[in-house]
Specification:
It contains 22 helices and 16 strands. The protein is of the alpha/beta class and 589 residues long.
């Protein structure tokens, strides 16, 4: 009898999956540079267009199947790939390579992949860097359709639950297996918790564990396995006792999931009657329906960088206006925060030439760049304000470090609004608090703006002087460091005194325990990835704000992150009247 083997990974989609292993090994494409004759260039362009058209048709069929299975919101991931394959700049750049270099489409795609992999690899933001997967997935589909013959691939079991395991799984491949097999769980050697593959797994409610290292261990198709998406464990060839344990845990989790679904329509009110607001962070308008399906009460952060990613020149005024109108229209009377372009640092965009800097994190970032190069900035502000004629918008300025910046920005907005005949009632102006300078002088900013939004990702990094992407020092990146918590409390207190809303849109909001801490610090409006909303909402509905605030009042007086951690565990978690954190949802501070 084989001994059960247990492997540890990162939980990416909650739940318990029980089934037999099904290994997917994606074909690697070896592409060589093939030169074509002048007279064959047009024929090659036509060959590319045929493959492109077929790829879009396939994705449309897949999108319809996903919609039929899980609704329109879940099909947004596939819609994003269709959007990429219809992007004029991307298509024209591929054609240009074919024409100018006189090469086959395969080589043009190869060069395009290299180009964008370099751009996206510079992003520290996991969500943005993960978008290269979507682009490669789309381009790989074209490569497949350029071939004259197609391989059939492995036969998919249709009568038994399977657990897919692979190095990585592109979103469209994922969607295909979801709609053609009984997928009970997913195991990936690589990937990120915000990847589109994981988002699809969450939408289909499939337990997923990522970053699993089988370490050369033989793992075969057809072997029984269990995926524990709550703890991040994978059991290979589990014993009968372990199977019984996890069948029971699976039943418990289904009850929990049912409660999560019901929480969407419940009011955002804590146990002691205090209101809070949970909103979604998005990249493109196509994500809005997904956000609303999870109960988002608004868009707390619309990152506009993605609109510029594939363009050699920025989108036109009309193109931008159309996109912003679309977002406001879909959200109706719910609040929408649009952040102006946050480029520089790790975010290099081809349309803007910032140049090489020795320390880009402290260089010509965001507003600093656009106050020097105002033409592009004016266009974005004008587009946002034109969209605001049809509904109120909140304009958010990133990377503010001194009061003169926001005063100059306000003058620009007011001037453009006057020319565009847009009333002040149609827009609010806010700043991102992501530098210690902005946090420590927040009492001055609250007199100048309508709201503030805290970006904890950068605020923690700058406060602690720690690059969280640097494995040598990221152990120091601690959201519970007293310096960070005291800054957050100070911003919340000063915002309340000044009578303006304090929001928080950093990753900290999406962590269960951190969300309670934020409420305890006085931050009642938080924004996060859509899939996290029901979990956080359920947790916050179970707490007492008065009690939590008293605990945090004492916690911030402590001298280290470890002390604060222990204090919260002792005074908050162990005395929590709810069974929320027991068994089903692991507590990870």
């Amino acid at each position: 009898m084989n001994k059960t083997r247990i492997f540890k990974g990162i939980p990416a989609s909650l739940g318990i999956g029980i089934g037999t292993l099904f290994h997917i090994k994606l074909e690697s494409e070896f592409i060589i540079k093939e030169i074509i004759k002048d007279e064959d260039v047009q024929k090659e362009i036509q060959r590319f267009e045929n493959a492109l058209s077929l790829s879009i048709q396939e994705l449309l069929k897949l999108k319809n199947k996903v919609e039929k299975n899980k609704g329109k919101a879940s099909a947004i991931i596939i819609e994003t790939q269709i959007f990429l394959l219809k992007d004029k700049d991307l298509i024209n750049s591929l054609k240009k390579i074919i024409k100018e270099e006189k090469v086959k489409t395969e080589w043009a795609i190869h060069l395009t992949k290299i180009k964008y992999e370099k751009i996206f690899s510079e992003f520290e933001n996991e969500y943005l860097s993960g978008r290269i997967i979507d682009l490669n997935d789309s381009l790989n589909r074209i490569l497949k359709n350029l071939k004259t013959s197609q391989s059939q691939g492995k036969k998919i079991p249709t009568r038994t639950p399977i657990i897919i395991f692979a190095d990585d799984l592109p979103p469209s491949e994922m969607a295909y297996y979801m709609t053609h097999a009984d997928v009970a769980g997913i195991i990936l050697s690589r990937g990120g918790t915000n990847s589109h593959t994981v988002i699809l797994a969450k939408a289909f409610e499939i337990p997923t564990v990522i970053n699993i290292d089988f370490d050369g261990t033989s793992v075969f198709d057809g072997v029984d396995a269990i995926v524990d998406g709550t703890e991040g464990d994978v059991y290979i060839d589990p014993s009968l006792t372990i199977k019984k344990e996890f069948f029971n845990k699976k039943e418990q989790f289904e009850v929990y999931r049912s409660e999560l679904k019901s929480v969407k329509s419940l009011p955002s009110i804590t146990k002691d009657g205090k209101q809070f607001k949970i909103m979604a962070n998005i990249e493109v308008p196509e994500e809005i329906e997904l956000a609303l399906s999870y109960g988002a009460e608004g868009i707390g952060l619309f990152r506009t960088e993605f609109l510029y990613m594939f363009e050699k020149t920025p989108p036109t005024l009309d193109e931008q206006t159309k996109i912003y109108k679309q977002v406001l229209s879909k959200m109706g009377d719910k609040p929408v925060v649009i952040r102006t372009l946050d480029i520089g640092g790790e975010k290099k965009i081809e349309a803007f030439n910032i140049g090489k800097e020795e320390n880009p994190a402290l260089g010509l970032r965001a507003i600093r760049y656009f106050l020097k190069e105002k033409a592009h900035f004016y266009t974005q502000i004008k587009a946002i304000l034109r969209a605001a004629r049809n509904g109120k918008v909140k304009i958010l300025f990133p990377m503010i470090t001194e009061i003169e910046e926001i005063r100059e920005l306000k003058d620009i907005v007011y001037s453009i609004a006057k020319k565009e005949s847009v009333e002040k009632d149609n827009y609010d102006i806010g700043i991102m608090v992501e530098t210690p300078a902005a946090a420590l002088t927040i009492d001055s900013y609250v007199k100048e703006v309508d709201f503030v939004s805290i970006g904890t990702n950068d605020l923690i990094q700058y406060t602690l002087a720690v690059d969280r992407g640097n494995s040598s020092v990221n152990y120091l990146y601690k959201p519970l460091n007293p310096a960070v918590l005291r800054l957050l409390k100070f911003v919340a207190d000063e915002g309340r005194k000044g009578g303006i809303e304090v929001q928080l849109c950093g990753e900290m909001a999406s962590k269960p325990i951190h969300s309670i801490i934020l409420i305890g610090l006085g931050i009642n409006s938080i924004s996060m990835a859509s899939q996290t909303i029901p979990i956080i909402k359920r947790i916050l509905r179970s707490i007492s704000v008065n009690r939590t605030r008293q605990i945090m009042k004492d916690a911030v007086k402590l001298s280290s992150a470890d002390e604060i951690n222990e204090f919260i565990v002792e005074n908050l978690l162990r005395k929590c009247p709810s069974s929320l954190f027991k068994n089903i949802l692991p507590v990870k501070i």
